[in-house]
Specification:
single chain; alpha+beta; 10 strands; 65% helix
Length: 660
């Protein structure tokens, strides 16, 4: 009972010390609770693509769980440091380490109960709110989030495990420390670290290698394979940069004549004296800021880019397709019949005979394209070819096509970054089928676009016979791989969204279940895409918020820690003759350096990774440079504003401690 009473009084009387730890515990509990409550809720099953969203939520839950444990350990270690003198006094007074550990255990248990109660209440509220945001994001119509009691038990159990880990760490430190060590723990300073030129150079090598991998990436496929390697190099490089390079740089500054100016002397010495303790925290803040920006940019880029990709694949409101090339079915007549039966209105009908994404190697030799099933040169010539007839493009509103004879074709480089040499091509040799290229077209309207992140080429043939002939040649070469390319007949048209259901019912009534005709609406494709990608965006938002909150918490603890240590140092400086104005100027200089260095490094990291991120987004249809740049610029600006707000808020804590 005595231990419980002491623990209760400690929390009540020393709430100012416990408040940051409780704030961190509740904050991370709420973020984990929100993710778990949505991921495990049966309400997800009522949404389009609910299974995929649930899987993504559980993946995010795993990341947040690990991240929460790291933040809890960091915050509890700070709390223990602040209260080490108190524990030392208990030991000197004969309380015994066993009793001290029991008091610490009861304090943590009370903190755990407070975290569960406050966190659950806040978690339910935020879960309901964010679920409404999520449902609106994916265009759903089911807004009732059901939170099961098992979810509350699950998150509570996870945090119970976390708090047992904390008490184990705390008990281990208390048990191994003497009374004198505990008394001195809060007040002892860090020894001036030694500079390590090798590790400083290694930091530059790691960062340079990571940047090189990111800046030299050429295509989305290589971007994905390089991404994790580059990230690991930059993470290690960031830690070595703060731990070794900054110390080496500060020691170099001590050798300059400008070091002996009062402001430079105090700032440099102070930074160097505690840089070992600062380095890990600054590196964590930098990495968390970088992760926040990258997560939000990728999430928004995928969401907006995927919508563009659907619209490129379906340039009109609806599409009827038939895969059988020998079918004599008049798809235009079929569409019109379904419209007459359902009393709906169709417009802008166009017929296409098309074969998409035929993958092979095309060598450009002396303005001549030669098709091959193997790569014969060092240059990456793998190309995705889309074939279409001239009549198809004309029916889609492309009037810029010249008449074509059987041995003539028209081409267009449809890659995101077209090769300028494509305009100079004059011949195509397609497995001994030779064609003259009589025109290069710059623009094509109302043509479904296939895979957009690789090198691609559009070839316009004079008629179906010539197009089928070259497809047959391709199939004969690829026969050993059991791969057969088949052209598709398409009818594209526009229809009012309110009439889609009636048209769909009529279409099903006049076609047999075994027929190969398929009706697709762009609105449904967009809804499916939003359902799947919307979950990814929501998780990116939750992770981004969690990372920025984690950075804010670390900054807050850093301010408390720095303020406590600097208060003693600046008091001594004032006693030896430094004016109050000079002290304030030095404080401001040091705080700005501590705060804005991580922000500057994080921005540099993102700039270095921009090319790689843009290539990855290209795979999801975000191939608009201006769109990706705008998303990146706005995200960076938003994070800078939030970071500056955190700076203004937490710097007051530092100034209040130092100037007190």
């Amino acid at each position: 009972m005595l231990s419980l009473k002491i623990a209760t009084n400690n929390i009540k009387n020393g709430f100012k010390s416990f408040a940051p730890f409780l704030m961190a515990s509740v904050t991370m509990f709420v973020m984990v609770f929100v993710t778990a409550s949505i991921g495990f809720s049966p309400s997800i099953n009522h949404l389009r693509g609910g299974a995929a969203v649930s899987t993504l939520m559980k993946f995010a839950l795993a990341i947040l769980t690990i991240f929460s444990l790291m933040i809890l350990i960091y915050s509890y270690r700070f709390l223990q440091l602040q209260r080490s003198k108190e524990f030392g006094l208990y030991d000197i007074l004969g309380f015994g380490k066993r009793k001290i550990v029991s008091v610490a255990f009861l304090e943590l248990f009370i903190s755990y109960l407070l975290t569960i109660i406050i966190g659950t209440i806040c978690g339910v509220i935020f879960s309901k709110f964010l679920f409404l945001v999520f449902v609106n994001l994916i265009g759903g119509n089911y807004f009732d989030l059901q939170i099961s009691f098992n979810t509350i038990l699950f998150v509570s159990f996870v945090y119970l495990v976390f708090f047992f880990i904390l008490i184990f760490i705390g008990a281990l430190i208390i048990w191994k420390s003497s009374s004198l060590d505990l008394l001195r723990e809060a007040s002892k300073g860090e020894k001036e670290p030694k500079s390590n030129l090798f590790l400083a150079a290694l930091a530059l090598v790691f960062l340079g290698s990571g940047y090189f991998l990111a800046l030299t990436v050429e295509d989305p496929i290589s971007a994905i394979t390089r991404f994790f390697i580059a990230v690991l190099l930059v993470i290690f490089g960031t830690y070595f940069f703060y731990i070794s390079f900054t110390i080496w740089y500060l020691k170099r500054k001590k050798k300059r004549p400008s070091y002996y100016k009062a402001s430079n002397f105090i700032t440099t010495s102070s930074m160097l004296y505690r840089m070992k303790a600062n380095a890990a925290g600054l590196a964590n803040i930098t990495i968390l800021l970088s992760m926040t920006v990258v997560t939000i940019v990728v999430s928004l880029g995928i969401f907006l880019g995927s919508e563009k990709m659907v619209k490129e694949a379906m340039p009109k409101d609806a599409m009827i397709s038939a895969i059988d090339p020998t079918s004599k079915q008049d798809l235009t007549g079929l569409a019109q019949t379904a419209a007459d039966v359902s009393h709906t209105q169709l417009s802008d009908l166009s017929n296409l005979y098309i074969a998409q994404d035929i993958g092979l190697h095309l060598q450009n030799t002396h303005h001549k394209l030669v098709a091959s099933d193997v790569q014969t040169s060092d240059k990456d010539d793998y190309t995705l070819v889309t074939m279409v007839t001239r009549d198809s493009l004309v029916s889609s509103g492309n009037d810029n096509l010249p008449p074509l004879s059987n041995n003539q074709i028209v081409i267009k480089d449809t890659s995101n970054k077209p090769d300028s040499e494509s305009k100079n091509l004059i011949n195509l040799d397609w497995y001994d089928n030779k064609y003259d290229i009589i025109k290069y077209i710059d623009d094509v309207k109302n043509l479904p676009r296939g895979n957009s992140f690789q090198k691609s080429l559009l070839v316009v043939f004079p008629n179906k016979e010539e197009m089928n002939k070259v497809i047959q040649s391709f199939n004969e070469r690829e026969n050993n791989q059991n791969y057969q390319q088949t052209p598709t007949s398409l009818v594209l048209f526009n229809i009012d969204k309110s009439e889609e259901k009636a048209f769909s019912r009529s279409f099903k009534d006049i076609t047999s279940p075994s027929s190969d005709q398929t009706l697709t609406f762009r609105s449904e494709a967009l809804a499916d895409q939003h359902a799947q990608i919307g979950g990814f965006v929501f998780i990116g938002f939750v992770l981004g918020v969690s990372f920025i909150l984690g950075a804010a918490l670390i900054i807050y603890y850093k301010q408390l820690s720095e303020g406590t240590q600097d208060k003693r140092s600046f008091k001594i400086l004032q006693e030896v003759g430094l004016s109050k104005e000079e002290v304030q100027k030095t404080i401001q200089s040091q705080v700005r350096m501590i705060f804005f260095l991580p922000l500057i490094i994080a921005v540099l990291h993102f700039i270095g990774a921009y090319r790689m991120i843009a290539n990855i987004l290209n795979m999801f249809g975000a191939n608009d440079f201006q769109l990706v740049f705008t998303i990146s610029a706005l995200t960076l600006l938003g994070c800078m504003v939030i970071y500056y707000f955190i700076y203004r808020l937490t710097s007051k804590v530092y100034y209040n401690i130092v100037e007190r």
